[in-house]
Amino acid sequence: MVLHRQLLLIPAVLGWSSSSGRSGGSASSLLSASSSNGDIVTTSDALALLSEAKALRQQASMIQEQLNQEKEERIRKQQEKVDKLIDSLLFHSMNTDSEESKQQLLHTEEQVADLLISKRMSYEMVNQMFDRIVELANRPQSIDSCSPLLSLLLDAACQVDCLERDDNPNKRWNHRVERDLRRKLFALGYGIRIEDVEKKDAIRSITGEKDYL
Fold it and tell me: Angle, to 10 degrees, between the axis of helix 194-207 and the axis of helix 177-188?
């Protein structure tokens, strides 16, 4: 409580009047007025508080920088995880005569479909691979022009979607994966991110906000 009152008195020590909004009166007269509350703040006290505030700002800045680094590290690890998943699902490796080189070949649609089932893939996992492939493509993706990896992933997902639920041992599969990702790819062709639209719709449903032409 004392520290709180001292912080409130810092402007007074620096020669500012809260009632007038401008400099006024001497620091000594303002300090005398503050003594009626039982606390006397000297110039050295104010400087100490300012120094402490500066140190706290520096500490907060360091903590924020550390949090940013940790966030970047989490993103990097997640990207590596998804990259490995893409490699294991869509590619198989063939060793060439040279031990230092390895030729990667795409799996067939049937092979990818089997892996989607055996690896117990979910929509969320396939969606992460979808987003990562789009990110690495370095060009706009659309229904008419998309990466061969996206085409293979979606065609394989369609095979699994078409299975009867009782015939699919992967109970994490919701049987709408290909449909939802095709819709997402269609929107990308027009520069629209489905996630952004759904987020805005969710906010509107809560706030009652409407679009006006």
Answer: 100
